[in-house]
Amino acid sequence: MSSRPAAVPTVQIDNDAVRVTEWRFAPGAETGWHRHGYEYVVIPVTDGVLHLETPTGPIEAVLTLGQSYSRPVGVEHNVINGGDAELAFIEVELKR
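The structure assignment produced for this chain is given below.
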């Protein structure tokens, strides 16, 4: 079990087509290990650095406000705020 604080998800929309979740991370906060069941798009609402724990090793990813990116179904990781300021993004899971 981790000693890191938990990231805070707020589901904004959840219907047959999409799930839209705002994620907020205090410094050092994490999502916990999870596997994505849908393709998804991330829209950063702050700049920041993510530390990703993955099955193949750690990855560092830079978030830039307004620069969206997508990932395929099946991604497995633990997402950690690697910076010293709050970090936030919107995640849009595509159910269709």
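Interim note for the steering committee: The chain has one domain: 8-94. The chain has a mean pLDDT of 96.
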